[in-house]
Amino acid sequence: MTVSRTSRRSATAIAAAASALALGSIAGPAMADTAPGANDPANDVDPPSSFTGAYIVNATPDTIINNDGDSVPGKEGAEGTFLFFTSSTENIICWDISVTGLEDIYESPAKTATHIHEADAGEPGPPRIAFPDPEPADSTDPAVERTSSGCAEGPFTTGLAPEGTDTGDGFTLDQIEANPAGFSADTHTADAVAGAVRGQLVFSQELLDQANASLDEDDDADDERQTPVGGVRTGEGGSATSLPLGLMAAFTVAAAGAGAVALRRRQSA
């Protein structure tokens, strides 16, 4: 999997996000490492020309399912928001992940501890995509928000091959787009190995429209910064490891909306 990462979201987006993710269906004894190549600029991937899917995950600790299909506790007090933007035509996925309430290191038999699983609500299922774990990974303060954002291009791997074949082998993003409710997102920690928080993917047409409009705005801004052949390009541009500013704005709006939904759920509980 080729990955482009940003280490932090905008301050507005960080403040807006109000729920957390977790990986609930894969448990294991080994501590996960960052995905190979995740920090290598040579492997950076830009967002696609357009998105074909957009999803919000409100992840909570009361949705964890272990490998045996049993409901088990996650990390009490943890919460988070996963935002996913997919392009099935280019097999590129972008994400923005925010998690709070974690106190321990990540732990998973896969190459990272943060995934999308092919799993219905209340059911276990194999991971299909492994994401760079939200940082700072070594924080022991539950008040610290851990975040991860970037874009990746298939083919996807998870580093987990219980039957000799990687669970990401052959997986394509059109499978998510065909049935988002059949996929969950989560993250594992040493004190919640079955999953700290978890939630199902929910398609959002509004978010998809915002993301594509933002990509168009970024393209227009790039065009304005272009100079004649032989000239020098000027203006403030994003680096190869950052998401376009317009797309980050879409993340901010989505995180705010997801946070409001999570808050209403907690107040009504």
UniProtKB/TrEMBL annotation:
Coiled coil: none annotated. Keywords: Membrane, Signal, Transmembrane, Transmembrane helix. Residues 1-32 form the signal peptide. The chain crosses the membrane at residues 243-263. Residues 34-53, 118-170, 213-239 are annotated as: Disordered. Residues 59-203 form the CHRD domain. This is CHRD domain-containing protein. The lineage of its organism: Bacteria, Bacillati, Actinomycetota, Actinomycetes, Propionibacteriales.
